[in-house]
Structure prediction request, 956 residues.
Amino acid sequence: MTESTQVLTEHTRSEIEEWLKKYPEDRKQSAVLAALRAAQHQNDGYLTTELMDAVATYLDMPRIAVYEVASFYSMFETEPVGRHSISVCTNISCMLMGSDTIVEHLEKKLGIKTGESTKDGKFFIKVEEECLAACCGGPMMMIDHKYYENLTPEKVDEILDELE
Amino acid sequence: MSEDKITIEVDGQTFSANKGQMLIEVTDANDIYVPRFCYHNKLTIAANCRMCLVEVEKAPKALPACATPVMEGMKVKTKSKAAIAAQKAVMEFLLINHPLDCPICDQGGECELQDLAMGYGQDVSRYQERKRVVKDKNIGPLIQTDLTRCIHCTRCVRFGEEIAGLREMGATGRGENTQIGTYIEKSVTSEMSGNVIDLCPVGALTSKPFRYSARTWELVQKEAVAPHDSVGSNIHVHVKANKVKRVVPAINESINEVWLSDRDRFSYEAVNSEDRLNKPMVKDNGTWHEVDWETALEVVSNSLQVLIDSNDTEQIGAIASASSTLEELYLLQKYIRAIGSNNIDSRLKQSDFSDQDDAPAFPYLGQSIAEFDNLQATLLIGSNVRKEQPIINHRLRKAVLHGATVSVLNSVDYDFNFPVKAKTIVAPDMIPLELASILKAVIEISNRDVDTQIKQSIDKATADENHKAIAAQLLDADDAIVLLGNIASSHPQFSLLRSLAGLIAELSNSKLGYLSENANTSGAWLAGAVPHRLTGCKQTDAGMNTQEMLKARLKAYILMGVEPELDCYDSRIAREAMKNADFVVSLTAFRSDEMNEYADVLLPISVFTETSGTYINNEGTKQSFAGAVTPLAEARPAWKVLRVLGNYFELEGFDYQSSTDVLDEAMKQIGSIEGDNSSSWKLSGSINNSSNGLQRITETPMNMIDSISRRADSLQKTSDVSDGAIHINSALAEKNKLANDDSAKVEQDDNSVTLKVIIDERVADDCVLIQSAHPEQINLGASFGEIRIAKS
Ligand code: SF4
Ligand code: FES
Ligand code: FES
Prediction:
């Protein structure tokens, strides 16, 4: 292990190792999405250049290739954001079911706009999120990895209050 | 018709094409124009710009010519209504975000987008929305970015990955927010980075040094040959009002293809440098005076006459740069020999000359440059080929991508942009033993009979797995080469390395090649600018070589294009010799403080863009060029200066009308140029069994190679320059209680200087790497050998 991969926690590294088992030796880069997800997770929801560099070293990839992947996919944050990432679906089904009210409520409650994080670093509302494939439960949102469906402003309050 | 040939029809004409070829290759080969941005014949196909859409019969929609393989009977229309409509639509999309800043864009006049917009664009935009703006990035001193202009063709990205072998640029973000760049603030470091300037079809990547200094349509294009490495890349010099504005590659598939190293591309800046010497100068009682040519040449002749009169011509030494032209080198040796001295040399960084009589006619590459593409195995000895001969490295890399293996024996673990099979990093004095071990392995595996003398000499060596693997690679390959690099040729036991390498090559049926140092190293040998051979490789009573001339502290030196204290193997001895001499005349394009101190006469000579001349490159190709501009101020081509000097002494045969006369005369004596490195190898010199104390290693960074590159401002801002520090690995640092950035007292013989410490794990154990041509280390001395360091 080289020095620059040490920023990855042991847990992250073992997770990457698990993924690496699924791909051929010389195709380590196949694990880049999984590796970035693990790295982002260890860092409370966003990637730093250091972490991306570590992933690059770990997977024998040019650093820029990792930056490309991380900046391409919307599930990766490359700037510091709040601990809990909230994605409200605003696609057609959810919109018809009132997702706009949910977004409005969230913004008011947390005092931030979409794309921003709360000052205490607890919450982050992602910019416009497309269909998350839970249309029958619209309006819906995803916080971190969990889906919450059939939302009402009250329900949103409850959910947020329960989060650490 | 063979099976692989098919027939297609384009715009009503029938063409035969190879199966699997892309349509655009066929149209290009037959001069049918298809517009394009992302396609480039040296890069992989990305098919992302869609500019090359053409109509193909039976296909429901227009198809991209660059990504459509030809098929039997295919009928293509490149200029039909449908094709043009598709191309126009693509153009409209591309122009949505492209700024209309052509009047202030350096690409204007040679912009592919501008050209195609003329052909396919509308004069009014239907797009009312805001245009995308991208912040410019600083990617180093050579390349200017204006990324708002980028059309995302990814040529620059593919170049990094496929040609430079160093992925530094990328496309980050997505969709409309995609940005080309390095993501983090960083200078690109590839030695070939400037090529993206040519590749970028728009003005997103342009030349920083050239920026805003001329419009392309004002430039006149002249052909020339790059003056730095031994490749002899073909270049176009672009001139405006008799001033060199920039240098770009000229296509020569058998040499540099379409590429150019950064050193060859940007060194022209020195041509217009402040340091240029404008007028002949003579020092009188310690003060410099500008004089006319006649006076200056008279002073030179009179000073030399004194030595001639006293039968002291042996006290005159001529030292020339091997980047001088063949004509210049030929005349200099003719001149010095005519006045009675064989002391002429152009091997500045060499120190072991013991087997020079057995040396080939010139240090031949061993094969042609193009043949590198087909190599199967290479053993590289003492070389940082990537920075020393970037184009050869590029060829080598291509071979590796096709499956060739490269093994490396070095004292510094240089970074290669291709995978290296076996790597051995040892102190310089252990390189012979390593080679002996490889030789032993070759003998063992091949079962070849060898001379007992050779067997005895390599007695001490043992072939381990690594050596055997290298030997096997060479033996198994149908096409293999053993290459001696620049560091090998300045090794204190060069003759031993040479014969060991020669034996390895011979016994493994490989070729032996020398990666020579300068643009005209081959020409210098052939012209007779070596002390032991006349023009055309005719043996003569050997005069002194560079090292001997400097050590002997001669009374008079004639320098041509050389700054001895920066260019020679032993910087300290060189400086002392110059200061001690009664008379030093320097034929030089530049002035320096050092020169002011030691020289007596300075004669301003032309640089490569200002003179006609000839270079013979490493593979033996002779390339002549005409001057692109007239010489600066009163500078004159060195061949003319030498002609007049010859006339002063009324020497015979110095009445040339043109440089072609000189060339013809020289070539008559040289005859045909044939590279042949074979020899009946003997092993002389002792093979060390164990390393001896602390040793110095000297490398010449890419942009420190000669007086021109050292004065190219932008190149000097890159990282390929001398840092005036000692590079040691952490083990050695610990032993001496030294840390990064500490000051260390560095000692060689009885001389010491204080230099900064850089911890550099690439350096072999118990070695100190110093970069040459840095003023701080001149007083140290020889490039290799014993050295001491301590905390200061
Ligand atoms: S910078 Fe130039 S070469 Fe690179 S993607 Fe943009 S337009 Fe193409
Ligand atoms: S539209 Fe919201 S989950 Fe599909
Ligand atoms: S040139 Fe064919 S898609 Fe770009």
